[in-house]
TrEMBL record:
It comes from Lentinula guzmanii. The lineage of its organism: Eukaryota, Fungi, Dikarya, Basidiomycota, Agaricomycotina. One of its GO terms (molecular function) is O-acyl-L-carnitine transmembrane transporter activity. One of its GO terms (cellular component) is mitochondrial membrane. It comes from the Eukaryota. This is Mitochondrial carrier domain-containing protein.
Amino acid sequence: MAELEADSPVTNAASATAENVKAFIAGGFGGVCAVLVGHPFDLTKTRLQTAPSGTYTGAIDVVKKILARDGIFGVYRGIVPPLFGVTPIFAVSFWAYDASKKLILTLTDNEGTLSTSQLAAAGFLSAVPTTVVTAPVERAKVLLQACSTSFRQSSKVQGQGLSEQKYKGVAGVLRHMYNEGGLRSVFKGSGATLARDGPGSAAYFAAYEVTKKALTPAGSSPSDLNLGSIICAGGVAGVAMWALAIPPDVLKSRIQSAPKDTYSGILDCARKTIAQDGVAALWKGFGPAMARAFPANAATFLGVEASRKMLDKFM
């Protein structure tokens, strides 16, 4: 049997499949790194966003009360859904980003080079399929993060130790979501998730690519950057994303943690949030989110790049 030529359709298809698989695996590994580094910050952000006004004086107060009630392991409350969910979320995100870049290259015939706006467009497109995974995972995470083990007070919001209902782990959360309203309940907040992740992912991937290019010495390739430069670029990407994403993230957290029929949609949530707590409420959790943005996303891209190089040796 004649050997396949290097540029034959079969060889090209196999190469494309291998690249997709590597992007998927590397993205999942990066997601695990992000959760391990960023979950305590994310927990603090979610508690600030979903707590009734006056519950906390700020991020430090949240951390103090978590440690007082639940100890050091309290800062990792709700980590199971994102740890298992983030792997496919980031895997799909990085796979979709690579696929979107290839699609844009095909449509524009840019000879392998994309402009910053085209990179941003690819980032935005990557959020569309990712939302299918992100929305239910983050809904479960929000409900678990808002839950306390120590004391209860009357409140409509599950969490902060303020609810009569308590969830017994991930299975209890998933059962509650489905029993509440079937798949519609499971995917509650999907519109707000896309409103957050579309622009956020556009800024995320574009900022990473632009920063890598800026840090690349003349005559070198961005793929050869050292670990310090990758960490810097990943951190900048995270900051760029969360600079845009906080208001829709607040609305997403409120929609996903609220009892059924509290809000009719993201605009209704925004109107009621502003009427009750003022415009400043849309920026609740900004401090923890930005504090998390750099280290968590530096870890993400470091994990992605390191695992991608390792995969290149075997695939």
